[in-house]
Amino acid sequence: MVPETLMPPALAQALDQYSRATIGNDTVALSRLFTDDYILVNSDSSVQNRQSYLKDFLVPGFKVDPYEMRERVFKLFGDTAVTGGAFHLGWTLDGRHQRRHLRIAHVWIRKHGRWQIAYTQLTRVPE
């Protein structure tokens, strides 16, 4: 594993933008951070594409709580990288607040000098 301190600055910036856009429901920023063929595998094993995932953020009242990533993971393979870790995800939907302890892994691809997420996997951690 490559130390996180050796993460390319452009990737670190993209990861920070992803976190801020997720918490801020910023679908414009998120759409720039995902490849056109982005795939998300949720912790319940459901699968979403880019359009479906971004649509979730447009649901009135949907809001993701600020979170802190722990047990961070970072691996670099040239123009491909894996980032992730463990975190408690809290969100509000339809007036109900929910919370899960998850592990997340993002596969990033650098194209034309820009890092984008191609794949995300969420795994539920038993409480």
In percent, how much strand structure appears in the residues? over 45%
Architecture, CATH level 2? Roll
Number of helices: 3
Note the gap between the termini: 27 Å
Radius of gyration: 14 Å
Question: How would you describe this protein?
Answer:
It is a single chain. By secondary structure, the protein is of the alpha+beta class. The protein is 23% helix and 49% strand. The chain has a single domain, classed as Nuclear Transport Factor 2, Chain: A. 13% of the residues are buried.
Question: Secondary structure elements and their pairing?
Answer:
Elements lengths: L8 H15 L3 H7 E8 L5 E3 H7 L6 E2 L5 E8 L2 E14 L2 E16 L2 E11 L3
Parallel strand pairs: 1-7
Antiparallel strand pairs: 1-2, 3-5, 4-5, 5-6, 6-7
Helix pairs in contact: 1-2
How is this structure best summarized?
The protein is built from three helices and seven strands, in the order ααββαβββββ. It has helices at 9-23, 27-33, 50-56, and strands at residues 34-41, 47-49, 63-64, 70-77, 80-93, 96-111, 114-124.
Summary keywords:
7 strands; Nuclear Transport Factor 2, Chain: A; 127 residues; seven-stranded mixed beta sheet; alpha+beta
